[in-house]
Amino acid sequence: MSEISHDTKDRLQLIKDALVLIYGGSDAVKAYEKILDLIEKYKNVVEAEPYTLTQKDVILITYGNQIFHEEETALATLKRFLDEYVEDYINTVHILPFYPYSSDDGFSIVNYKGVSPLMGSWRDIKALSKDHRLMFDGVINHISHLSEWFNKYLANHPNYLDFFIELDPSTDLSAVVRPRTIPLLSEYTDDEGKKRSIWTTFSRDQVDLNYANYKVLIKILDVLLFYVQHGASLLRLDAIAFIWKEVGTKCVHLPQTHALIQLMRQVVHTVAPEVLIITETNVPHDENISYFGEGDDEAQMVYNFALPPLLAFSILKGDTTKLTRWAKELKLPSDKVCFFNFTASHDGVGLRAVSDILTEEEVNFLVESCLAHNGLVSYRAMNGNADEKAPYELNSSYIDILTHPDSEQSLRVKRMMLSQAVTLTMPGVPGIYFHSLVGSESYFEGAKKTRRNRAINREKLNFDNVKEELEDENGLRNSIFKRYKQLISIRINEKAFDPYATFETLDLGPELFAIKHFSKDKSEAIITVYNFSDRTIEIDISDHCDANLLEIITHKPCTEKMLTIEAYGMLWLKQV
């Protein structure tokens, strides 16, 4: 390599240390030399630009073909929607896997370095990156069984030996944590006619990569740096908790898993220090936040998986006791990391994150409520036994989890926007799913047609139809979208909502949820208060504020410390 800085030397040492932990011996040395070559290659084509997250960072979660128009590529239509409707409000877009794929709406990738012709081209991605920061998915636990990598493996190509994990089907895998009820091993026939049982955590079409072979790691690092070269400002590591396997263990959160993430971060940051690493680990909350590491060595953002089910539970119960207790215990290992807060996504509302927060009876209440609102529920196998299962996620649009589809529109809007307002003001960066932003309801026809529960919240929308519905002042989409834009426009201009700012969760009673936010320089403070009940409540906040207040949603001054908050209402109180 050319002359290197002190920071780069430190990063290279951390890379060496991680390789020794993961591989040891000669493989660590070989891997390090390959990594140096990759760094040199991409440093010559990537222009690093410093960037720090602020309250202005809001992330839209969307499929590349989420919205379509027959006269243009889907990605071009997405850009048109962003330009016309949210350009001044949302600065970052998480484009869910837009690569060529064979199933799971993109999460079974055939070619990591391509763009699905159903969505557009790299030219479209570049056009999006001109006005928005982009999050790309690193779907690196598994790859499609139709991929070149797997086909060459089955052909016994020497460069792809041990790229995947083959086991004797009689191997005891009962200790492995399972996110599905399907068998862990899937059978394939290689080019010589031999039957081979291969590790597939999520489906037969999603074949797990074998990181015990350092050549797999090198291939994947090349992919991640390729994404940075093509506009990724954030890298989302999908299902990363499962990436390292050791027979006889749970095969989740293993030391090598954390070491791999740390290594990936250092490699990426050697080329582009401003790129953010985000881990997606739908597991119990305490396990999830372990991916922050020491606060400066692993993920910079972690999906706050406990928030969606806790919000839904609290709104349905009209009781914030569990939510407040959980929020009071939220802690970060440093001021360099933060949560990625969301309520809905392309997946369902995961329940594993609250397994240590809600009781089994309370989780069942969520399940029963979802089913009563015409939603669906997905399950996972327990103790390696497909016949012993537990609820894994709720499959529904988020608005339909909170209210029955036949409920009055005013109630649906109030409950939905209560949940979204909390998400916008939780400490961290908010992520907004496209369907939540435009007020979509459950796509029952899609789930029925595909026989896949998750299709219920993955409908692809016609641009002209959405435009017409957004302009209908009496419609659900219009009501939610206008309210959303109002709240976002306020959030992005308040320093107290900086993702790295300090906060304090207040206890104002079982029907209210409140957080006091402080700007990083402590010059400003905002108290956000939310009413989760169906009645108007009077609150006394004199113990939490000794200054005059301005309610910044309505721009009304508060001259008294005894305030009124309506059913499912909100107050954003700024000290002035």
Describe the structure.
The chain is an alpha/beta fold and 576 residues long. Helix content is 33%, strand content 21%. The chain has 17 helices and 27 strands. Strands 1-3-6-11-12-13-14-18 form an eight-stranded parallel β-barrel. The protein starts with 5 loop residues before the first helix and ends with a strand. 49% of the residues are buried. The mean pLDDT is 96.
**Over the alpha carbons, how many angstroms does the gyration radius reach?**
24 Å
Main sheet: strand order: 1-3-6-11-12-13-14-18
Helix count from the secondary structure assignment: 17
Helix content: 25-40%
* Global shape: globular
Largest sheet: 8 strands, parallel, barrel
- Beta content comes to 15-25%
Output the structural class.
Answer: alpha/beta
Count of DSSP strands: 27
- Stretches where pLDDT is under 50 for at least 5 consecutive residues are none
Describe the structure in brief.
By secondary structure, the protein is of the alpha/beta class. Helix content is 33%, strand content 21%. The strands form eight sheets. It has an eight-stranded parallel beta barrel. A six-stranded antiparallel sheet has the order 20-21-22-27-24-25, covered by helices on one side. A three-stranded antiparallel sheet has the order 15-17-16, covered by helices on one side.
